[in-house]
Protein 1
Amino acid sequence: MNQYFVGVISCLFVLLIILITFAPAENGIVESVTVHSRGGGDDYGTPLCSKDGGCRESSTEPTPRTVFSVRSPQQMAQWIKTQNHNRRKAEAVFRKSSVDVLFLGDSITEYLTGTSLGQACCDDQKRSFDKAWVGSNVLALGLSGDQTQHLLWRISGEGGELNVGEATTIKRVVINIGTNNLGVGMTPSMAADGVVKVVETVTKLLPNAEVWVEQIFPRGRLQQSVASANARIRNHINSRMPSSVRISTCGKYFVNAEVKHESEASWTVDRAYLPDELHPNGPGVKLWMDCLKSDMNI
């Protein structure tokens, strides 16, 4: 009899977990994603890319984060929660008004909102960003740690962050993505091809918007890879893209003055603006926004 009740309770528990995990939101979009794994349940923390150049995710194929691109089940849950928040925030904005500038990207973009995977941080970055765009309707959709393939998924139909209604006008889009592809060991060509795929997707979804593509910001020990990826990005965009797509070179303001006129592969990061050699601080965000506004003639 005891075994019978144990079996019943176990079945009810499994059913409850399924209902919680896959319960649809009020708007019918599932508040969860499938956790992708090619092994058992212990794949968290397995390197995304191996030393021989093989990677478990493709930079050009949309995918949510997988066990290979998060460190733990807790981080996966936080990514899902933050992505859902981004989608709902975007839907609310798109229903009500046009957007002057839409920012898409990773942690560099998320920091502009004062969060990292939804957790409060980065007050200086948020203050500089908000001050730069007083009087404008701007929206920043970033997720810390994301790579090109994750942003592709987020702006696809399933991710839902660019489900734009016909009444919504998005005037300009700023794309800043790709540094994390290099950070996990993807080649410069993989990272660049992912960036180009994001740009192609955005131009199809928002054909009337001006698109500004940030070259990958300078990044310490990865600078040679950054320079190679940026050269490929420039070549693809200049040869393939319509005139509404422009290259932004605002990253040059984060380079030490003594090497600014040398080849990009030789650049070193000015820690006054990128203290961790990756993310702009408050003054760095101000430089970046001033540069963008000048490029956009705003």
Protein 2
Amino acid sequence: MNAQPQTLTDIEVKERARDLRRKEMKEMTFNADTALVMVPTDGRDLMDKANAMSTAGLMVKDIFRDNPGACAGLIMMCAPYRINPYQASWKCYQVKADAPLAFEAQLIMAMINTSAPIKGRLKYSFDGEGPTRRVTVSGVDRDSGEVLEYTSPMRKDIGVQNSPLWKNDPDQQLCYSGGRAWARRHYPEILMGVYDREELIAAPNMRDVTPADDDAPRTAAAKMQSLVDQRDPANSAGTRGEGDRQAEEAEAPDQGGGDTDPAAKSADVAPDTANHSDSGAASAGSADTDQDETADKPDKKDTDTSPTSDEIEAARTRGVDAHGMGMALKAVPGELRENTALAEAWQNGWKEARDAG
């Protein structure tokens, strides 16, 4: 008689799967570097680790619970830095809807310390007090031996300061901010896709400006105009020019200058008051005097206030950070576009980060 095939019950299937998993775990070697345990060997191993992590309950932050996809993403991000994703999960935050995941400054510094190609660790030195306090970060390149430095803006020039450490321990927060900027300047590749909470808070909100006609091209001018409108909503209410004019305006910040002062133009033409009465002549003479004085004083809007070296450095640093966040070269912040030197410093910083990458 032919033996009938044995049918396994659900309990037996689960027991066999458990035994198989136990055998795999027995073959795994543990050491002091627990982060290596979470480095996947292949795609299946990645999802096994992600599924296990998503069911870890209180061992991971709530945004990763019952979310294997997010756990897989975090595992892959932590692997190059040899950081345990279970620990890293508690240093992650969702700052804005549809925004990249934000990382706590402590975690970002851990990423830099474990991956930057330098000898030893970063060193910090301070100068100034109170609002003028700033930090200089330095590290020695492992290959060339060159000392790579970065000096932060003064504390008063740093825009977003939401962390309590800015009040309770400003030197520590300057180290966090300066170390992150140091890495973005000298080794931008080690922090690709990694953002601090304050970076995401300071970043402008992006909105979809796709034309109604799906076949219509999205020009660079249209993309730039969306940024301008967001910075200054009043721009969207007026009549727009042609695409070429928008592109020219977006290409560079307002340079000022030019004979745009009506009084300055009218000063070149003296009114004919010879046949007027004495009172009319006196009035015209007064007008001539006012026009001459106005012609000698350019419109304030057309005159750039010379920024300090610290302000220029702060603008350049913002440009470096903007490149790291994926912003375009033309997306100069509105408050900097009003000053040519600051706008150019921002763009120079952006270009430095691009060339370094």
Protein 3
Amino acid sequence: PGWIRNGVPSLRLRMMAQPDSDLEEDALKEDLKFYFMNPCEKYRARRQIPWKLGLQILKIVMVTTQLILFGLSNQLVVSFKEENTIAFKHLFLKGYSGVDEDDYSCSVYTQQDVYDSILFAINQYCQLKNISLGTLGYEQDEDDVSGLQICKQQYKKGTMLPSNATLNIDIAIETDCIHLEPQMLATKRSGDLKMINSSFFNFEFYRLIQVEISFQLKGIDLQTIHARELPDCYAFQNTVSAFQMYTHGNKCSRVQNISYWCPDCKIEEIQCALSINTRAK
């Protein structure tokens, strides 16, 4: 009894009648079928909670959140750099209109314009703390404020007479630099600096190639405070090419190159306070 029901062998009898190889084959088929089921079918078949699916969804959420936070943080950095790049051009390029010409430069056409551009950049550097809207300061070395450096590149001595179509010049390039100390910049006007260093500023334009003014500034990006993050510190290496004329035509370009890097911030204390708007009744 129990072996045959209505003339049909029972399941127990069939399993006993099947060889072991057939049982293993059926078990493998069931496993393969279960393996290719979707999470809903697996739950219906064996009431197994699809925890792997939940783990994958959690990974997707975590990675997406990290990408969003990284993108927002990087957006603050990019906007800070772009804003300062535009601000530096307005601060140190005389007559900058906000529109760049070829190769992000603007042009001057007379010798006096070249001198005016150099003295303007020096004067703006001296008054930076009084005219800048941003959190900018001078770069300091171990002893004191580093000041600024002016370098000129020119061909070696020679003669040039366009009226007689005569040219006698040594194409070897020589570089001459002066360093203006902060104490001198604080006590002297830009015009006096030109007179003191008259031998340097006495340009021979027919052999002059380039005049560069370089200095370092530091700034603090406070935008990150609103995102509940520590502020970022930046160092700016500014190079103002007040004269750049490799072709020696009637037009020279003025270019400002800015490089950035992030030194360590020395944060002493940040106080957080809840602002409350009150309205008088």
Protein 4
Amino acid sequence: MERIKTSGDGAFEYVRYRYYDGQQIPVMMLASGAGAWSDGNAYQSKAIAAQMQDFKFGDESKTQDDD
């Protein structure tokens, strides 16, 4: 994966474990930009991603539109 970085910008990925359907699942949190704005989440399966596509966890960073 190629990344282009400029001053103050960056890409951030980290994994958090969340509860889904009574089980803990890994969720990759994706963020970018000088404000580390949330770009979305990645899930292990398309089925979970489809169900969670509009869900926002309470501790996620703001999106660039929210800032």
